[in-house]
Amino acid sequence: MALHTRDGGLVMPNAWDGLSALMLADAGFEAIATSSAALAATLGRCDGRGEVTPGEHLEHARLLGRLTGLPVNGDFEDGYGNSAHDVAATVEAAVASGLAGIGIEDTSGNPHQPIRDFDEAVNRMRSAVDAAKGRIVVTGRTDNFLQGRPDPKDTIRRLTAFAEAGADVVFAPYPPDLDALVAIVTAVAPTPVNVLVSPSDKVLRVAELQKAGVKRISVGPLHYTHAMGALEQAVNALAAGDLASATTGTSFERINELLAHGKS
User: Fold this and answer.
1) Which region holds residue 80: left if phi is over 0, alpha if psi is between -120 and 50, else beta?
2) 227 within domain boundaries
3) Residue-wise over 221-251: b if at least 16 C-beta within 10 A, else e?
4) How many domains in the chain?
5) Are the CB atoms for 215 and 4 separated by under 8 Å?
6) Please, are residues 177 and 152 in contact by the beta-carbon 8 Å criterion?
7) How does strand 72-75 pair with strand 32-33?
8) C-alpha count within 13 angstroms, C-beta hemisphere, residue 5
9) Contact 31/71 with Cβ under 8 angstroms?
10) Which three-class secondary structure state does DSSP give residue 142?
11) What is the pLDDT of residue 204?
12) Backbone dihedral angles phi then psi of residue 105, each to the nearest 5 degrees
């Protein structure tokens, strides 16, 4: 939690496998996170549909932590369960697995009603905090903006309630603009706010987000999608017969160097 409360806060990028985690550690980042979307994609599954089990996600997070020795925050969707009791059990498992943090969303997995009712969402957050007992950083997240519910008042209401329930950090992915982000930061202060670098705000630099009061910056699945974009370009080049463009990238010497320095 100390990383969140110091001046400037922290940048906490998201890894999707052992090598990406080692690259982030080698670049000097002090903490990393999982990405539920990137993890699901690496397994050939879709995010947010219950296709990844909590056990699989925990094993993945343990790998990242074991290789890097860094604190790992788990992007654990809705807490992997329909009830508040299930959420508490997931938090307990995360603590037992040595995670430094866990994020719990107000999503439902129901495409017809993707965001849970306010009271249910707050109750689930309270259950997560009670289970954490201060042993793990709990991030309370509302996906209003992500799910096409551009209601800043309800977003702030939810994040404020999550903070009042004891969430250590709050988070609303994809705020529409900087004004909305500043309004969130102001409303929930002094609770730290995480921001996901998104297509709408990626023109902003880290220093600008920090000046706005953000205490944690993550990238979600965007490093993964960047890597997949480069792969798609290489695949298309190969299909067109261009071997040179299709075979550039990090050398295996560099990969082996990183893997040799892993802590497992």
Assistant:
1) left
2) no
3) bbbbbeeeeeeeebeebeeeeeeeebeeeee
4) 1
5) yes
6) no
7) parallel
8) 6
9) yes
10) coil
11) 81
12) -95, 165
Domain that holds residue 69: 2-221
Residue 43 tokens, joined:
């397994």
What pLDDT was estimated at residue 167?
Answer: 98
Q: Is the pTM of this model over 0.85?
A: yes
8-state DSSP, 14: B
Judge whether 81 lies within some domain: yes
Cβ-in-10-Å burial (0-12, 13-18, 19+) of 205 comes to: exposed
Residue 18 to residue 256: CA distance in whole angstroms: 12
Gap between the Cα atoms of 6 and 146, Å rounded: 28
Q: Are 190 and 214 in contact (CB under 8 A)?
A: no
- Tokens 């999707």 correspond to 16
Q: Is 207 buried (19+), middle (13-18) or exposed (0-12) by CB count in 10 A?
A: exposed
Report, in angstroms and rounded to the nearest whole number, the Rg of the chain calculated over CA atoms. 19
Which stretches within the chain are classed as H helix?
2-5, 18-26, 36-42, 54-68, 84-96, 118-132, 152-164, 178-188, 206-211, 222-239, 243-246, 252-260
Q: Would you state the structure tokens that stand for residue 243, as one six-digit string? A: 């071997």
CATH number at residue 126: 3.20.20.60
Residue 201 included in any domain? yes
In a domain, 9, yes or no: yes
pLDDT beneath 70, residues of the chain: 198-203, 264
